[in-house]
Amino acid sequence: MSFRKDFLWGGATAANQCEGGYTEGGRGLANVDLAPVGPDRFSVITGKKKMVDFDSQHFYPAQNAIDMYHHYKADIALFAEMGFKTYRLSIAWTRIFPLGDETEPNEAGLAFYEDLFKECRKYNIEPLVTITHFDCPMHLVEKYGAWRSRKMVGFYENLCHAIFNRYKGLVKYWLTFNEINMILHAPFMGAGLYFEDGENQEQVKYQAAHHELVASAIATKIAHEVDPENQVGCMLAAGTNYAYTCKPEDVLAARKADRDNFFFIDVQSRGEYPAYALKELKRQGIELPIEDGDLALLKAHTVDFISFSYYASRVQSTDPKINEKTAGNLFASVKNPYLAASEWGWQIDPLGLRITMNDLYDRYQKPLFIVENGLGAVDVPDEAGYVSDDYRIDYLAAHIQAMKDAVELDGVDLLGYTTWGCIDLVSAGTGEMKKRYGFIYVDRDNEGNGTLKRSKKKSFDWYKKVIASNGEDLTN
């Protein structure tokens, strides 16, 4: 067997992409609710277009998403039928603290997730919970400027106290921030950041990043104090950067691009700011808002494991003539001529997953957990709602084989694997429903039309077989 006996097979979702029920149970308004589908989405999630409430000119898919708020029991039963050992999900901050700065949590929100976790436990499914999957209460955005404010650390700490104590014994695995490096690429979606005219955007982003890193260390501290059994991980959007040629300048450009992403995990895993980052921040005139005790806190409370998403590798070139970029991804890079691409232009590179795993494990020497990987595609169901998604099976089989090679041949310590969007949900990047990842088809379109009926795709039974064989049988 390549994988450990207790390997955590499963799937992953995010509250804002699947729950819906945006006004139910006392839930408040969050930044992720305000990202519309359509041409304005990119400017909203990157903080260029300010949107503080819904308007009649846009459709906001997160409002109802796939309505898992009302379907979670049936959905979890389907996950159990596939044999899931774990289910990665996120908590909507505004269900627990609707405004974000209250002193007492919202009982209805706490009870909702307690019921959901108990439903998982009923099927022996281990919840893997992301505390913040891009969520930021809009009240905190408007009143405090979101994560640019140090006050956010205290509000996040209150959230952690509430959930760690309430869910003690129900949840063991936690992630502090989803794709923490997304703050550099989509700052409003990633951290609730808008920018004012003339504001030093890089200063604001790294200022906010420091506050998130301090908050992550505090979360790790609280989690271990509340329950020594708790395991806390960080999470980055990963994908190794290749040099376009063996020209030394290209190699250096690729190394620098990797470091831009490693920066956050270096702090969370090693407990200190790396020298290269401090030098670069100084060159840019960026000052980190480090307060007394911050550095000691970061050093004392590092994460237990490294989790990451992997969809594609990336390429860097210093030749201005080599400028054709990949499409459809917030982490756009130079196109790799040796790779095929998905319908959204994401380049498909299973071997890149093995390379990325080795890069991370060699660097940090901590267990890894792949918490997002999958193929976004247009699925065309038959009249019964069945989708013959052999293309998805082929994609996942190739990536799982690369994952096996990293474990078996390279000695990487891997805790588990959760495919992204195990049930169809709203795309974070585009807001579309037609960009589907799931083993379970959901009848809903980009405009919110449809019955929300769930139906199994061909990949459903394939993944069930993969899990039952602990990854040994990948045949279609």
TrEMBL record:
<protein>
    <submittedName>
        <fullName>6-phospho-beta-glucosidase</fullName>
        <ecNumber>3.2.1.86</ecNumber>
    </submittedName>
</protein>
<dbReference type="InterPro" id="IPR017853">
    <property type="entry name" value="GH"/>
</dbReference>
<feature type="active site" description="Nucleophile">
    <location>
        <position position="372"/>
    </location>
</feature>
<dbReference type="InterPro" id="IPR018120">
    <property type="entry name" value="Glyco_hydro_1_AS"/>
</dbReference>
<dbReference type="GO" id="GO:0008706">
    <property type="term" value="F:6-phospho-beta-glucosidase activity"/>
</dbReference>
<dbReference type="InterPro" id="IPR001360">
    <property type="entry name" value="Glyco_hydro_1"/>
</dbReference>
<comment type="similarity">
    <text>Belongs to the glycosyl hydrolase 1 family.</text>
</comment>
<dbReference type="InterPro" id="IPR033132">
    <property type="entry name" value="GH_1_N_CS"/>
</dbReference>
<keyword id="KW-0326">Glycosidase</keyword>
<dbReference type="Pfam" id="PF00232">
    <property type="entry name" value="Glyco_hydro_1"/>
</dbReference>
<keyword id="KW-0378">Hydrolase</keyword>
